[in-house]
Specification:
The complex is a heterodimer of chains A (254) and B (341). With 254 residues, chain A is mainly α. Chain A has one domain (2-253). Helices cover 83% and strands 0% of the residues of chain A. In chain A, helix 2 runs parallel beside helix 6 (107-139). The longest helix of chain A has 35 residues, at 19-53. The two termini of chain A are 28 Å apart. By secondary structure, chain B is of the alpha/beta class. Chain B folds into 2 domains: 2-221, P-loop containing nucleotide triphosphate hydrolases (Rossmann fold), CATH 3.40.50; 226-299, Alpha-Beta Plaits, CATH 3.30.70.3190. In chain B, the strands form 3 sheets. Chain B has a 6-stranded mixed beta sheet with strand order 6-7-8-3-9-10, sandwiched between helices. The longest helix of chain B is centred in the C-terminal third of the chain and has 17 residues, at 304-320. The radius of gyration of chain B is 25 Å and the shape is elongated. The two termini of chain B are 15 Å apart. Classes of the chains: A mainly alpha (254), B alpha/beta (341).
Chain lengths: 254, 341
């Protein structure tokens, strides 16, 4: 446990000592705040009084927050490769992997430390979106419970993709390759969720079930389904497990 | 302290280490010598639990590297070929991280870091980013990282590479100070390095153990033989070179005669003696009695470099042509190894 925290802190230090953390945060702030949140709120301000007068006030949860967090999910899909690409690839390239693997720590402690470090950066990204949403809570009265559920969904989905990204990063010495491959996987997941949405064949149902993105939909509606939670947790476990296998193979192959 | 038996490490197509066995006792400094690609680094990586052996066992400080890697790792300090550094960290921050990683408690960590920065003379740069340091400083940070937790066994892969002569001497002194309660294995291809700091030498070549002995024994044994350059000329034209070589080989105590390029009708040979034999007088007599002119008789002397080359290339040449002296020196080595066991 002590070792996990130690490695996690080292990861956080590396993120914030390099431009990566700031690039990710700035990119998210721009895309989410500037490209999504601001136009939505502007529209809301314009439409709001009108709707009020017609006797059908706008439901902030359904009409504003839900699509906003949907966007947050999509944006983070494309930012996560930036977070995970260096996790293992960098250590392998610079030879520090040899230090970690010859220190009295277990492989799983290294992996968990790194994954939690990446999670913390991802959480700070999410915290920025929460900062934006807090304005809606100041000026309006949205229900906060579905928002929390949606954030839980974002965290689980992110955790899943980070674990997959960590696995891909453990396969190569090259950060660009790791980042590119993770980005590709995220892209495919995103596209699949589009394609299978209008198809009801068995194959697309299976793909749909396995897609990390589609499981987020229930969360975004504020529905807490055990099925989805179990899916995400088992995906995280599986991805971290194959990462540990990949670390072990490093010893046999290198 | 370290016991390696029948260690073999095979990669996909190549055999990096082939059936190596040796033992290192507590408190010794052992030099690991060999040409590039001989298997030094691979052996070290097995000892540090970074790579598992294909077959054979390695035992460090009483723990097996496969069965008890965590216990082994706690007891070793390891400096890989390229020091494992995080360029974005400051020196003291890095040493703190590694120290904690090696299991030093938070209460002790500060004094340990201070201690080790002093030992490796890193005081001036302790608050600098590692990425900004010169090669020599990085190497020293690498050494500091290996000794921070005061390990029983130190494994250093070319510890003095990239250091200037003054720093090399400092590191040597440091290593000598550490020996005694630490067991140190260091690999190098700088031979004077071994002469200065090691008590015993393990020479490997092409994955095989070629020699294992104390430095003094090794140099004595091999320096005991002398090498003599002989220049022979005949008044009546060139004597048949094969004839001269045969005669020289027949001189008692000669182990090997190498013919060199002849120069203006003068024949040049390099003659090596068996160990402990003085052959110059006999050589001179033989040449003169045969009616040739002896132009020059000069002692060449074997340097440690020659010894090293002789040992590491011996295997190839015995395989190619079964010449006696080599076989003999090999048998000697075997005997020496046998003694050790």
């Amino acid at each position: 446990m002590k070792n996990i925290l130690l490695i996690c802190r080292k990861e956080m230090r590396s993120y914030f000592a390099s431009p990566i953390a700031y690039a990710v945060l700035a990119l998210f702030a721009f895309l989410f705040g500037g490209m999504v949140f601001y136009p939505t709120v502007r529209e809301l301000v314009r439409m709001g009084p009108q709707a009020q007068m017609q006797g059908q006030p706008i439901n902030l949860n359904d009409m504003v927050i839900r699509p906003l967090l949907g966007f947050a999910s999509t944006i983070s899909l494309f930012l996560l490769p930036l977070i995970t690409m260096r996790l293992f690839a960098e250590e392998k390239r610079s030879g520090t992997m040899e230090l970690l693997l010859t220190s009295p720590v277990r492989d799983i402690e290294i992996i968990l430390g790194k994954w939690i470090g990446a999670m913390l950066l991802y959480l700070s990204v999410l915290a920025m979106s929460a900062l934006n949403l807090s304005f809606l809570f100041i000026w309006g009265k949205p229900d906060w419970k579905p928002v929390l559920v949606a954030y839980l969904g974002l965290i689980l989905q992110g955790g899943c993709l980070l674990a997959i990204g960590a696995f891909i990063s453990s396969l190569t010495k090259n950060q660009i390759v790791a980042g590119g491959a993770t980005f590709f996987v995220c892209l495919i997941l995103w596209l699949l969720s589009w394609f299978t949405a209008f198809d009801s064949s068995l194959a697309s149902q299976v793909v749909n079930y396995l897609s990390i993105v589609t499981h987020f939909e229930n969360f975004s509606k504020g529905v807490l389904d055990l099925k989805d939670i179990v899916f995400y947790l088992s995906m995280i476990f599986f991805a971290l497990f194959i990462t540990s296998r990949s670390m072990e193979s490093l010893r046999w192959r290198s | 302290m370290i016991k390696v038996e029948g260690l073999t490490k095979r990669y996909a197509r190549t055999v990096a280490v082939d059936n190596i066995s040796f033992e290192v006792e507590k408190g010794q400094i052992v030099g690991f010598l060999g040409p590039n690609g001989a298997g030094k680094t691979t052996t070290m990586r097995v000892l540090t639990c970074f790579l598992p052996p294909t077959s054979g066992t390695a035992n460090v400080a009483g723990f097996d590297v496969i069965e008890n890697p965590l216990e082994v790792k706690k007891r070793i300090g390891y400096l890989p070929e390229t020091p494992p550094l995080y360029p974005e960290m400051e020196v003291s921050e890095y040493l703190t991280f590694v120290g904690k990683l090696k299991g030093i408690s938070s209460a002790d960590i500060k004094s340990k870091v201070d201690d080790v920065t002093g030992k490796c003379s890193l005081g001036d740069v302790r608050n600098k980013l590692i990425g900004k340091l010169s090669k020599g400083y990085r190497q020293r940070v690498g050494i500091a990282q290996a000794i921070i937790h005061n390990p029983e066994v130190l494994i250093l892969d070319e510890p003095t590479s990239g250091l200037d002569p003054k720093q090399i001497i400092e590191i040597r002194d440091l290593l000598r100070a550490l020996a005694g309660d630490h067991t140190i294995i260091l690999s190098t291809h700088i031979l004077s390095e071994v002469e200065h700091s090691c008590e015993r030498v393990i020479i490997i070549s092409q994955g095989r153990l070629v020699a294992i002995d104390s430095v003094a024994n090794l140099t004595n044994r091999l320096r005991g033989s002398e090498a003599v350059a002989v220049e022979v000329e005949s008044a009546a034209g060139q004597p048949p070179p094969g004839d001269v070589q045969l005669r020289l080989e027949q001189v008692p105590g000669v182990s090997r005669v190498v013919a060199k390029e002849p120069k203006d009708g003068r024949l040049l040979f390099e003659v090596e003696s068996l160990q402990g034999r003085h052959i110059r007088a006999d050589l001179a007599r033989t040449v003169v009695q045969a009616g040739w002119n002896l132009n020059e008789l000069r002692s060449v002397g074997l340097s440690l470099e020659d010894i090293f080359l002789q040992l590491t290339t011996a295997e190839k040449s015995t395989a190619e042509k079964k010449d006696e002296p080599k076989a003999e020196s090999k048998a000697e080595k075997k005997a020496a190894e046998g003694d050790k066991k």
